[in-house]
Amino acid sequence: MISVPEALGRIFALLTPVGTENIPLRQANGRVLAVDAIAPRDQPPFPASAMDGYAIRHDDAELGKELTVIGTSAAGAAFAGPIGNGKAVRIFTGAPVPVGADRIVIQEHTTRDADRIKISDLSEQDFIRARASDFAEGFRLGAPRRLGATELTLLASMNQPEIEVYRRPKVAIISTGDELVMPGDDVRADQIFASNAFGLAALVENMGGIAQILPIARDNLSALRGAFDLAANSDLIVTSGGASVGDHDLLGNAAEELGLTRYFYKVAMRPGKPLMAGMFNGIPLIGLPGNPVSSIVCGTIFVCPALRYLQGLPAAPIQRITATLGRDLPHNGPREHYMRAMFESGSVTVYDHQDSSLQTILSGANCLLIRPPNAAPAQAGQEVEIIQI
Ligand SMILES: Nc1nc2c(c(=O)[nH]1)N[C@H]1C(S)=C(S)[C@@H](COP(=O)(O)OP(=O)(O)OC[C@H]3O[C@@H](n4cnc5c(N)ncnc54)[C@H](O)[C@@H]3O)O[C@H]1N2
Ligand code: MOO
């Protein structure tokens, strides 16, 4: 059995980032920028007022001084002329500061009478945003990076109506097992509903991929062949179930017969021991164990980083953070244990029941607490690592 980092490294080695495409900025939420975006001009493109008030010359900034208002500068409607001593221009937030003015007096610090204002108070600040104080022409937003609200705001202000992003990787999800039926279908007493594919599809979509849930493959070679045929145009195949050693667990052997080159089988983790990965007729394949918790844990630990890597992001494991253990834990066995747990106010407490079939416990958990292989007993108050889910 190999370790989790070793398995993840071998999965990255199977993958090649997908190609790129040009898309409208409006469709870029959640996508990964593939090429640096470069600002074609300064922002702000002119010195701009940060407040509503009056633009004046610095020399005129004296308490009690009276000035003549000679015009208005509004956002999108600049005052054309320059401004001299003894003069003021009514100005609004975001408006260009007239040539010659180098200070804004906020309107609360003035009294106005017709076209005259009197300065009644003064701030230390000039309330002028210098040209290019946000970014200058030539500023780069570097790729690769995932685009969300903040990046899209910036890209729009950089006048990027279209951007180059990585294509969304297509992931075919194949559930295997004679006992499985899709939710809503007729179910016999000896069958259960196929749940793994729904969670896995959500993980894939959350990571920017396109998930395709294929029809359930029964535990026989021709059913598996049919499912794999449907996955032919995918960037990644994810299977669930049939990975273990039972008489009906034929995924590994059958897939090899159909063209799979297996790169590894079995990982020192819990849940998830029968994980495998390989290349299926040119398409990378990750084979997850069938137990629902194993499938989602392995999806989080392996499929999510794989999706990031397919979209041009660095080959990196899922982020861990530290938390304080809320309750003592016994020593751990030889496999790295991903325990379902609750993280609240910095403290993490594991659930009593950790069987990898318990979907209710998994859905109640908000993190996985990681126990290293052969870890000594841990006491409440100790620092531990968790992954938020
Ligand atoms: N003799 C041994 N038996 C088992 C071992 C072992 O080392 N020796 N490993 C156990 C571990 S650990 C796991 S994990 C499971 C994994 O087995 P498979 O990947 O072959 O999964 P299945 O047998 O097909 O299913 C296991 C379990 O999960 C249910 N299942 C499967 N697919 C789905 C699905 N899509 N949605 C919901 N539930 C699903 C299935 O009905 C079984 O109950 O093997 C242990 N056995
Ligand atoms: O490795 Mo299994 O996934 O513990 O239930």
UniProtKB/TrEMBL annotation:
Any single biological process term in GO: Mo-molybdopterin cofactor biosynthetic process
GO annotations of cellular component type: cytosol
Keyword Magnesium: yes
Boundaries of every MoaB/Mog domain copy: 172-309
Gene3D superfamilies registered for this protein in UniProt: MoaB/Mog-like domain, MoeA, C-terminal, domain IV, Molybdopterin biosynthesis moea protein, domain 2, Molybdopterin biosynthesis moea protein, domain 3
EC number: 2.10.1.1
Transmembrane segments: none
Protein name: Molybdopterin molybdenumtransferase
Protein source organism: Qingshengfaniella alkalisoli
